[in-house]
Amino acid sequence: MNINLTLFGQMVTFAIFVWFCMKFVWPVIIGAMEERQQKIADGLDAADRAMRDLEAAKNEATDQMKEAKQEAAGIVDQANKRANQIVDEAKQQAVAEGDRLKVAAEAEIEQEINRAKEELRSKVAGLALAGAEKILEASIDDKANRALVDKLATQL
Amino acid sequence: MSGENPASTTEYIQHHLQNLVYGKLPAGFERHTENGLEVLGADTWTMAHGASEAAAMGFMAVHVDSMAWSIGLGVLFCWLFRRAAVRATTGVPSGMLNFIEMIVEFIDGSVKDSFHGRNKMVAPLALTIFVWIFLMNLMDLLPVDLVPKLMGLAGVGYQKIVPSTDPNITMGMALGVFILMIYYNIKIKGTGFIKELTMHPFNHWAFIPINLFMELVGLLAKPFSLGLRLFGNMYAGEMIFILIAMMFAAGAGTGLVFGGLNAQLFGAETNGAFWLVIFVLVCGVCWMNLKGKISTGRTVLLTLGLLTIGGGVFALGGGLMQWGWAIFHILVITLQAFIFMVLTIVYLSMAHEEDH
């Protein structure tokens, strides 16, 4: 172990290298690294934010979809209801119409019957008179008997 | 490399532990040169040839190898990190930049954990300490003989490539930290620093000498513990690498054909070249196996054969131990760099805190 001038040589060299490192190496590398760290942190932040935004958008989309579905279901319900209503109304109308027609038909039939009765009555009076004329073979005062026969006819 | 007999073993170790020294030889020193003995007339600045000359230089000397490797690795650190700093963007980092930023972040975390003052210097200081010491320690993982041998071939006698096994280097850094500690103690606390030294732990004027003694010892122990811990760990690690390398060499001596063939072909001194050939052959065999040219069974047989020729199973054992210790050492070098850094942060943090 011999200590000599190398000791001081090394001390000076040491100082120079430390100075160089302090001046030209360390700040540059550390600066670049810190800047990059910042950049990465920002990037991660942005990614996080984007993720959150995406999540929110997804939720919103789901909500909207749900709403739309509900709305659609409502519309369909309403439509169904309306359709049923229309069918019911149509049914009622049809029934009413049928009733009306039936009543009209019955009235007509009644009328028809009455007319036929009337006709028959008038015909019967004539026939009875003709028959009586034939039976009596005598001329009967038409005017005097007519009133009689008409009275008979109304009693038919 | 030549670990066959005790004398050369000692020589080998000593050679490995000798720095390449440039310093001042005092007047009147007797120098062994090629022209015989030469007595220096005046103080001479020169490269030391051998340990005795280095010892004679005393304090007025510089470990050229330690300084060169230390500065070189420091420059490598600065270059790497400066390049990363220039390329640093706020965009997506990639490759090298990622790695650098990982280290910076780690250091930043450590500093934030233990340093609560406001000082722009501590974090870069910690970064420099950690990476620089780690790089210096990392040199320990290069094969112990590789660089000294290559430098030897290039004509440089001594080469210690791990600066942190040099107490000058570790103590130099520790003293640098110590100066910062004193500076910030005085800057932040002012007279409070003196009070801290004299009125703790016994808050009475009669105890001032005792307090001063205790606190000064505590204060001075910090740089020493810092510097010597790193030095001791790295020195011991290096030593074990050297010892295993010697075992490796001794094992290689038992190779079947080694003794005769190597001596015949290269002479005793150049067995490194012989090993290089064996190493290349083994690598070639493994490569062929990887490429699927030869079967695994044959690969094992060929490798064993080559090892038997080259250095026997002991050499393989030595290699495995070297490898195992290197893996374990990865932990040690990182841990030591980390400890040096953390303690620096803690000491500076203490210098910044008013309450003791």
- Indicate the overall shape of chain B: globular
Secondary-structure class of chain B: mainly alpha
In oligomeric terms, what are we looking at? heterodimer
**Which ranges of chain B are low-confidence, i.e. pLDDT below 50, for 5 or more consecutive residues?**
254-260
What does the largest sheet of chain A look like? Answer: none
Number of beta strands of chain B = 5
Query: What series of H and E elements makes up the topology of chain B?
Result: HEEEEHEHHHHHHHHHHH
Portion in helices of chain B: 55-70%
In total, the number of domains of chain B comes to: 1
The fraction of residues assigned to DSSP E strands of chain A is under 5%
The CA-CA distance between the termini of chain A, in Å, is: 170 Å
**Could you tell me the mean pLDDT of chain B?**
83
Q: Major sheet of chain B: size, sense and barrel closure?
A: 3 strands, antiparallel
Beta content of chain B? 5-15%
Please give the count of helices of chain B.
Answer: 13
Domain count of chain A: the total is 1
Biggest interface and its residues per chain?
A: A-B, 32 and 51 residues
Strands side by side in the biggest sheet of chain B: 4-1-5
Catalogue the unreliable spans of chain A: none
**Average predicted local confidence, pLDDT of chain A:** 89
List keywords for this structure.
heterodimer, A: 156 residues, mainly alpha, 92% helix, B: mainly alpha, two-stranded antiparallel ribbon, 5 strands, 70% helix
SSE topology:
The complex is a heterodimer of chains A (156) and B (356).
Chain A lengths: L5 H131 L5 H13 L2
Chain B lengths: L5 H12 L3 E5 L4 E4 L2 E4 L4 E4 L3 H7 L3 E3 H24 L8 H19 L7 H17 L7 H8 L13 H23 L1 H8 L9 H45 L5 H9 L4 H21 L4 H15 L1 H41 L4
Antiparallel strand pairs in B: 1-4, 1-5, 2-3
Helix pairs in contact in B: 1-9, 3-4, 3-5, 4-5, 5-13, 7-9, 7-13, 9-13, 11-12, 12-13
